[in-house]
Design goal:
- The protein is mostly beta strands and 892 residues long.
- It has two domains: 165 residues, Immunoglobulins (Immunoglobulin-like), CATH 2.60.40; 677 residues, Maltoporin, Chain A (Beta Barrel).
- The protein contains eight helices and 47 strands.
- It starts with a helix and ends with a strand.
């Protein structure tokens, strides 16, 4: 072959190869036939470095056919979206694609605006109250999404084009937006990726939900860090805050800024949860695994909440994954649980089902049986303070005395709760949500106790409650700036408590001689409550302010029965309607002051009470290094939870009526916040509260002799109170170590003309000083260590509280808890395990004082042998001692 022929063949082969390469280059890389847009997006994300921002429900009905090369892909995809009134923007430098529904604006529209949703990147669920922040030179501004995960920023003038989107338990998303996009006011869906192994937390809400959550408080309240029974305890975790008083492990609720537990409410998906605990306050009534958002309001509450005298914990449950099936299984030393969730119609509807059941009485884990005895007031740990009557002879006999012990012969204790939810979302963002909850406690214990020096008898204590909640909510956008939400719900609650050997505290006076003693007699309490509720709210965002307004309605039926020593048979059945109108105006455009003004008008039909609840708060220099605020509100409460000093069981409710006005509080608060350049965060708050018409059960009012005359009910309703306090919080994060220190100086005094001769006295929940230290150490990617120490000065000695002096108090409270959390990926999910030690040093922390029967051995005298006597004595009952617990959760 000649050289010329070889060159010709080589040239022909080269031309052929170029032709093939050209054909291959022109061959489409992407080919879809009537494919769901969400699947198209996932295919593109797998084959490229681009990541999409979108909302599932907006795209779930979109199908398209597409034939495109890599170069023409986004241009052709954008054209395909036009019939669906969707648009697409590509940021090639940052590998980011945004699919959104453009807003049509007039040509002269120049204001910067942005709206949209914040959702979970994996499940597609909306993230309520997520924070959207942006830099404006020396300041960082921000807002929070609403309870539906929707945000609307108007009149935005950023120096930077960067947005930072945060949500507890999720990775912060940083977005770059062009000036043109901000001018057009596009709707944007922001997708946040969940962090693995993130503990459940509670957000501390400021005056309003639309105030950006303060990152300095993130991680402050971990719901599973210190729980005596292994289960996450959202309510107990709030005691980390200086505004919440230290209380015993067995509790009926929280004392927030001077209020009794009657002033604390829990809302579950917007409806009141009428029993807050399982097992005497040791376990939350709701399963933390299903909670999506938790917000605590203890200061000036938004007008959308009725706002009791203390605080409100608002819980929103998950809606279920829109994209994939997920499951969680859990085991602790007290209960087993399982949660299932998944899509009904992928991308637009979902379901969730969760259940938890206890086996505390059937598994002999260390301390389980003792906890049941402790909760039912059987063999609670106690010491004898003094024998009665107090004199020198009795003091000599104290060393030969002992507290009566009961012999337990039978125990039956269990609890369970069930959560269910279904969710539908339309293309336009409208939502239909149906949720349900049912919880129950059944606790029974039998025992033998002495009834004299030589005789014994069998007794029993029962504590039972059941509650069911069902609600339906519909949320829709009426126009670009107004969102309407409607909720209808029904709650049914019943509770009973019966103790055959309740110890009544008595004081007998005769000719100036006083004798304190105790009498054993049954106590029975029965309660039923039905609540039908309806709420309609509208929220409108304007350029310089936000406006929320609406109404709520409740039809209430409350039945209360009591069988006791002073009341052989008390019965009450009350019905009433509660209708409210509310409006909330939030002005946050100024860099100097953010103003929150709310108003709520109540009408309560039983007594025809018309009451006005104004609420006002001003926060100056918000989101700057130094900020301060002032607030005032007047809150009313028409339903009341009775509190008993030694009964920590079911919640028992009564109603205001024509003879007993609603309770109220006039509330002044102030705050000062400072962020040091070194990273320290300082928060100083103070409050003054004037209470009116508080409820106080006669068993909590001291010794019974003061309550036997002129009573129409077993409780006092015309109690006045005055509370004041100063609260300090200091935080610092140093690498993997985080520290939080708190201190509270506070006081609460109560006055009633028929108690203590009309002089004021300190109630059981008053503590003068309280301090706490919480530390968190992220040892590595798998281990997190928590430690907490709480100190509180002594609570009033209830048997001497009417003396109103500081020396008539019990000993101080000091408790240290430790928790170790372990996380590790397994298979397609991950494992989370926790070991907790409650009251590590097993300190006897005084809880309350009472008069109890004790046995005394009188030494032999002459021919008389030793003699056993049964007399009354003043005793100090202690809080729960050392208690280990564990929990294991597997998510897949």
């Amino acid at each position: 072959m000649t050289m010329t022929k070889q060159c010709r063949l080589f040239l022909a082969a080269a031309l052929a190869m170029c032709s093939v390469a050209q054909v291959q280059a022109q061959t489409p890389k992407y080919h879809f036939e009537n494919e769901k847009l969400i699947q198209v997006i996932k295919q593109i994300e797998q084959n490229t470095e681009f990541r999409f921002l979108y909302r599932e429900a907006q795209l779930s009905a979109v199908r398209l056919s597409l034939l495109a090369s890599a170069d023409s892909l986004f241009l052709k995809l954008k054209r395909k979206l036009i019939p669906y009134q969707l648009s697409l923007d590509v940021d090639s430098a940052r590998k980011q694609v945004i699919i959104y529904k453009p807003h049509r604006q007039p040509p002269d529209y120049q204001k910067y605006a942005l709206s949209g949703y914040v959702v979970d990147d994996e499940s597609g669920e909306r993230l309520p109250y997520a924070t959207i922040a942006w830099d404006t030179g020396p300041l960082v501004k921000g807002i929070s999404a609403n309870q539906h995960g929707y945000f609307d920023i108007k009149n935005m003038d950023p120096v930077s084009d960067q947005l930072y989107v945060r949500y507890l338990g999720y990775k912060t998303q940083q977005l770059w937006l062009s000036e043109e996009k901000l001018k057009n006011g596009q709707e944007l869906t922001i997708r946040l990726q969940p962090k693995p192994f993130t503990p459940d937390e509670i957000t501390v809400q400021d005056a309003q939900d639309d105030l950006a959550a303060d990152s300095a408080l993130e991680g402050l309240i971990k719901t599973g860090s210190f729980s005596p029974l292994g289960e996450n305890n959202s309510i107990r975790a709030l005691q980390t805050l200086p505004s919440v008083a230290t209380d015993a492990a067995v509790t009926n609720g929280l004392n927030v800024r001077g209020s009794s537990s009657n002033g604390f409410r829990i809302l579950l998906d917007g409806l009141t949860l009428y029993n807050q605990y399982h097992l005497f306050g040791l376990v939350d009534a709701m399963n933390a695994e299903v909670l999506r958002s938790s917000g605590f309001h203890y200061d000036i509450s938004p007008a959308r909440y009725q706002a009791p005298l203390g605080g409100t914990l608002s819980l929103i449950t998950k809606t279920g994954s829109l994209n994939q099936f997920n499951a969680t299984a859990g085991l602790s030393n007290s209960a087993a649980s399982a949660t299932l969730e998944g899509p009904v119609n992928k991308g637009s509807s979902s379901w969730l089902l969760s259940g938890r059941y206890s086996f505390i009485d059937s598994w002999n884990f260390p301390g389980n049986e003792d906890l049941i005895e402790y909760g039912l007031d059987v063999n609670r740990p106690a010491d004898i303070t003094s024998l009665l009557p107090q004199n020198n002879a009795m003091n000599l006999l104290k060393q030969n005395s002992r507290i009566e012990q009961q012999q337990v012969t039978g125990t039956n204790a269990d609890f369970y709760d069930i959560h269910a939810k279904t969710y539908w979302e339309g293309v336009t963002g409208n939502q239909l949500i149906i949720s349900g909850y049912h919880g129950s406690d059944q606790t029974h214990q039998e025992y033998i106790r002495p009834i004299s020096e030589e005789e014994t008898a069998s007794f029993a204590t029962d504590n039972n409650w059941n509650t069911s909640i069902i609600s339906a909510s519909y949320n829709m956008t009426l126009q670009s700036r107004t969102i309407a939400s409607a909720t209808v719900g029904y709650s049914d609650y019943d509770a009973s408590y019966f103790k055959e050997d309740f110890r009544y505290q008595l004081r007998n006076e005769n000719n100036g001689n006083r004798r304190d003693t105790v009498r054993i007699f049954p106590l029975g309490l029965d309660n039923a409550l039905a609540d039908f509720s309806l709420k309609q709210s509208l929220s409108t965002t304007f350029d310089d302010f936000g406006l929320e307004y609406g109404f709520s309605y409740q039809n209430l039926i409350v039945t209360y029965k009591e069988q006791s020593l002073p009341d052989a048979s008390f019965r009450s059945r009350r019905t009433s309607q509660l209708a409210d109108l509310f409006v909330q105006l939030n002005i946050t455009a100024s860099n100097i002051v953010h103003l929150y003004s709310g108003s709520r008008l109540h009408y309560f039909s039983n007594g025809a009470y018309l009451r006005w609840s104004p609420r006002l708060k001003a926060q100056f220099f918000n989101n700057q290094r130094f900020s301060f605020g002032l607030g005032y509100s007047r809150n009313y409460q028409f339903l009341h939870k009775l509190q008993f000093y030694n009964i920590n069981s079911s919640d028992f409710w009564i109603m205001s009526n024509e003879d007993q006005p609603p309770s109220s509080v006039d509330y002044l608060s102030s705050n000062l916040k400072y962020r040091f350049e070194s990273g320290w965060y300082l928060q100083l708050e103070s409050y003054l509260k004037w209470f009116h018409n508080l409820r106080l059960h006669q068993l909590n009012s001291g010794l019974l002799s003061s309550t036997f005359t002129n009573r129409k009910s077993p409780w006092f309703y015309n109690n006045e109170g005055f509370a004041r306090g100063v609260e300090l919080l200091l935080r610092k994060q140093i690498g993997p170590l985080g520290f939080t220190g708190t201190y509270t100086l506070s006081a609460i005094e109560v006055q009633n003309d028929r108690i203590n001769d009309g002089a004021s006295f300190y109630p059981d929940w008053d503590r003068r000083h309280q301090a706490g230290l919480v530390a968190e150490w992220k040892v590595n990617s798998q281990f997190i260590l928590y430690a907490s120490t709480t100190y509180a000065s002594g609570a009033p000695d209830r048997l001497n509280s009417f003396n109103s002096t500081e020396r008539d108090r019990m000993d101080y409270f000091l408790r240290t808890d430790v928790s170790l959390q372990f996380n590790r990926p397994i298979f397609s999910g991950y494992l989370e395990a926790r070991l907790s030690l409650f009251n590590v040093f097993n300190r006897n922390n005084p809880w309350y004082t009472e008069i109890s029967p004790v046995h005394v051995t009188q030494p032999a005298m002459g021919n008389r042998p030793d003699r056993e006597r049964r007399i009354a004595a003043k005793t100090t009952v202690y809080d729960l001692g050392f208690q280990p617990s564990f929990s294991i959760n597997i998510r897949f």
